[in-house]
Specification:
Blueprint (H helix, E strand, L loop, with lengths): L18 E2 L5 E6 L12 E6 L1 H5 L6 E6 L9 H16 L4 E5 L4 H13 L7 H8 L8 H10 L7
Parallel strand pairs: 2-5, 3-4, 3-5
Antiparallel strand pairs: 1-2
């Protein structure tokens, strides 16, 4: 098996706009305020926001919501880490997965940076990885950058 390389951006066989994670899973990040990207539907989605955002969106596939206010951190960090690890496991198992928040940049970029760390990227390189592979402004706030390091020090499955 060939190791995934940074810079590979779009999968023709996965969700439109999906990125290849360092450990070989594919995940699509997006903003819920943007038009639907088209193509095949996700098999699972992790959505980040508050009750107001949740009320504006419904999905025809399996999904979970994390209470995560815009520009801030998740209300429950332990639950967020568990759901990020679950998203990673689903991606590695070959499911079509996506993560999204309102704009698709800060919170979504933070989750993608965490996925990169869980996939082998050093925590101090995670934001640069997310910006190079997902969105140039991924992980908008300094406290989101610090949270990546804290969140990814939680022992994950081997």
């Amino acid at each position: 098996m060939v190791a995934p390389k940074w810079g590979v951006r779009v999968s023709a066989v996965r969700l439109d706009g999906a990125i290849l994670l360092p450990d070989g899973g594919w995940v699509r990040g997006r903003g819920l305020r943007n038009p639907d990207p088209g193509g095949p539907a996700p098999e699972f989605g992790l959505y980040l926001g508050n009750g107001k955002l949740r009320a504006r969106h419904s999905f025809g596939w399996s999904h979970e919501w994390l209470e995560w206010p815009d520009f801030l951190l998740p209300k429950d960090s332990a639950l967020a880490v568990r759901r990020i690890l679950d998203l990673r496991a689903r991606a590695l198992a070959g499911e079509r997965v996506e993560v999204a928040c309102g704009g698709g940049v800060g919170r979504t970029g933070t989750v993608i940076a965490c996925l990169a760390v869980f996939g082998g990227v050093a925590p101090e390189e995670a934001v640069a990885w997310a910006r190079a592979n997902y969105h140039p402004r991924a992980v908008e706030m300094p406290w989101q950058r610090r949270w990546i390091t804290r969140a990814t020090t939680v022992p994950g499955p081997a």
